Amino acid sequence: MTRWKASAIHFAISFVVLATIFALVLWRWYPPALFGMAKAGPLLSVLAGVDLVLGPLLTLLIYRHGKKGLKFDLAFIAVAQVAALGFGLHTVWESRPAYIVGTSDRFHLVFANEIDPPSAAKAPAEYRHAPWFGPEVVSAPLPDDPKARFEAMIAAMTGLEIQYDPSKYVPYPAANGEPAKKALPVRDVLSAAAPAERTAWRNAFERHRDARDPALLPLQSTRGSASVLVDRADGRILGYVALDPWPTVEAAKKPHGGAAGG
């Protein structure tokens, strides 16, 4: 066997393994509409580059049929490649999307490494550990009690915003109807959207004709923004859209832009 053939076989094996892992990662953690805002591309690209280049390239350089110690060299390359892949996957695991948290007027995509550990330790059992197959949709409503609400505001000022505190999580949707009741109705989205994006918004809502009162809410994270379509009638999440909601939401707040929440 030539070194080129050995390298090609190594590349093919690496590609199949990596493609399988990536398919599972993208299927469970990074739905298409969330992939861009979660900035998963650069990390996965580095992981793919290391796995698909490092191993096959080293095989190309060291392989020589009949070479003494060849099995040891190939085993060492395989171990190094698996170690690099494991380190990369651990990084992906630690920064995976864990929760989509509904607060008063928007959703937040929270990553596993952003969750406050002391708060998680005090949380109900179902929220003490970040989901393995997330992201899970939850609510984090502000408490009705004035003292508790003030304490939550102070915590947010010190860096512990409510979306990062699993002890405040409850199943979505929250009993008080937030955040769906503050969503921007479809008619206001279409009237406020820039002409270049209006068709995209219309197509997004067209896919959910069964909704009684379709509307838009922002989905934000520390890495970027996307949009959530909800049914204001029951708070049901209809889907996610890889469009920045903020220009449309801000335009709707202006006198000529339509009434948000109408």
Ends apart, CA distance between termini: 71 Å
Number of domains: 3
Envelope shape: elongated
Radius of gyration: 24 Å
Task: Name the structural class.
Answer: alpha+beta
- Low-confidence parts: 258-262
SS strand fraction? 5-15%
Order of helices and strands: HHHHEEHEHEEHHEEEH
Assembly of the depicted chains: single chain
Please give the largest β-sheet. 8 strands, mixed
Count of beta strands: 8
Helix tally?
9
What's the average pLDDT? 85
Could you explain the architecture of this structure?
The protein is of the alpha+beta class. It folds into three domains: 3-94, no CATH class; 97-171, no CATH class; 180-253, no CATH class. The protein has nine helices and eight strands. The chain has helices spanning 3-28, 32-35, 40-62, 70-94, 117-122, 146-157, 186-192, 195-206, 246-253; strands spanning 97-102, 107-111, 136-139, 170-171, 184-185, 214-220, 225-231, 237-241. Strands 1, 2, 3, 4, 5, 6, 7 and 8 form an eight-stranded mixed sheet that branches. A hairpin with a 5-residue loop joins strand 7 (225-231) and strand 8 (237-241). The longest helix has 26 residues, at 3-28. It is elongated and about 75 Å long. The chain starts with a helix and ends in a 9-residue tail after the last helix.
